[in-house]
Amino acid sequence: MSAVQEKWWKNSIVYQIYPASFKDSNGDGIGDVPGIISQLDYIASLGVDVIWICPMYDSPQHDMGYDVSDYEKVYPPYGTVEDMETLIAACHSRGLRIILDLVVNHTSHEHKWFQESRSSKTSPKRDWYIWKPAKYGANGNRSPPNNWRSVFGGSAWEWDEATQEYYLHLFCVEQPDLNWENTEVRQAVYTSAMEFWLKKGVDGFRVDTVNMYSKDPAYADAPITSPGSDTQVAFSLFCNGPRIHEYMREMNDVLAKYDAMTVGELPSTPTLEGVLRYVSAAEKQLNMVFSFDTVDLGMGKDYKFLTKLRNWTLPELKTVTRRGQDIFNGTDGWTTVFIENHDQARSVSRFGSDKTPELREASAKMLAMFQCTLSGTQFVYQGQEIGMVNAPEDWAFDEYKDIDSTNYYHMVREMSNNDPAQLETAMQALQHLARDHARLPMQWSAEANAGFSPESSAKPWMRAHDNHTEINVRAQESDSSSVLSFWKKMMRLRKEYAEFFVFGTFELLDEQHGEVFSYLKRSKEGSVLVALNFSEVPQDFEKPVGELKLLVSSAEESERAELKPFEGRIYTILN
Ligand code: TEU
Ligand code: CA
């Protein structure tokens, strides 16, 4: 099928916005919806097609809005429902589409549904959440119904003193899991969280933790992988449960009425077959998903922060990339390409180098080329387009705000009895992998607060990166050799050569090469070669048969055969 006949979202580029950190219009130190509206021309100038806004719903913000207390209201510091209506119209008038984050595996503990549910065992909404009695040991000690560990550490069960039962929270204590087995819950979710916004004209949803709605109904203990710990990693028991595909189809029936685009977040589903069950067109469930293979590279299995720095190799990155690209090879499925989002450290710091300005810029451009030449719907996270990097190594722990980071650090402090060496290791892991890095204020200019908040305003809710004087939108917009200019060029090229880059099939070359990642993208019209140097030193690379014509290099024009440090090149192959 040619590109023109395909669904609009396949050839789209989505720009992800984290409302708290994008643009503060009124100087309270917190980004807001009017701030987003004020930067829509900038967003449109990038050449993207869709914006995705992370949760802007009313919330007590225990997990930055992924704990929704009212789906039909906007968190007041971000603005109002009217501001959202203005934003939707302002997007559409620029030819941009807008999708929202749909967070319905759980609500906030402050949502009225949960307030009612916890009010008594006989509440009509008791069954809207997952309540279970305690277990009692021989000595009469009370313990949770099973050993599941929450994604943010600690037990996934919280004891409710008033009604003497535990409720399930796969994320933080303030995020009780909804009981999707209950039909009324599903209908309430469709009406309040989905149709309320679809009727206002949003074009679809990014669906949070999409595979956790159906849990293994036995609620059995997870296998012991951390001996000596009360809690165990339990993804295999709470992801992809027996009714999940029934729920997906039911949800899709609602979304289909609005022709909405959907992208589901799909942790713990590493096989092609598992992914296809959600995204095969014939299944009518989701349009595409975010798989975790690439962004999980090098993370600890037991706790993600329990790892060595840069604990991954290039051949591993190649393998997971190929696995992700396999879906475009003869299936009726579709998926995404991304290496950053609000849950990940910055890609330049993880997969490139932020050691010197030269290496940083070179690797940011090379990574742009990497992403823009992979098949799928493309997602770019705010600040990625200017090559923003992780917070500096010398920032202290109190600059880290995310519950995932603070829970981990506090756990290490407690378990190690404040041991300085262990705390230092934990800090290093945070500096490498914390979600906080993606949440630093967007760097608009060299001015105070990185131009995120007006100069005279309150301190931004997270400290602006010290390097904002060097890395910022204003400086890069007027520089044709900047990371930003290169991203724009690559996004244009991606569309121009969509049959290769968006829709083509992927063929890995030189699988074992530890420094150069090279591959072919093929279409009916022929092939292109992509060669990416993932190292700090020049590298040779193997050339396939055929006459190569350089289409673009991420480095300054060079006659040399070798790739420069972190250089990427694309060649068309003439026969
Ligand atoms: O994330 C779900 C998820 O499984 C991970 O990305 C998780 O945040 C990470 O592994 C923790 O280290 C989604 C949202 O993207 C995230 O921001 C929320 O915190 C989470 O759901 C709960 O709603
Ligand atoms: Ca504000």
Automatic annotation (TrEMBL):
**CDD domains documented for this protein:** AmyAc_SI_OligoGlu_DGase
PANTHER family of this UniProt entry?
A: ALPHA-AMYLASE FAMILY MEMBER, NEUTRAL AND BASIC AMINO ACID TRANSPORT PROTEIN RBAT
Q: Which keywords has UniProt assigned to this entry? A: Hydrolase, Maltose metabolism
Signal sequence interval, chain numbering: none
Top-level division of the source organism's lineage: Eukaryota
Glycosyl hydrolase family 13 catalytic domain spans which residues?
16-439
**What InterPro entries does the database record attribute to this sequence?**
GH (IPR017853), GH13_cat_dom (IPR006047), Glyco_hydro_b (IPR013780), O16G_dom_2 (IPR045857)
Name of the protein in its database record: Glycoside hydrolase superfamily
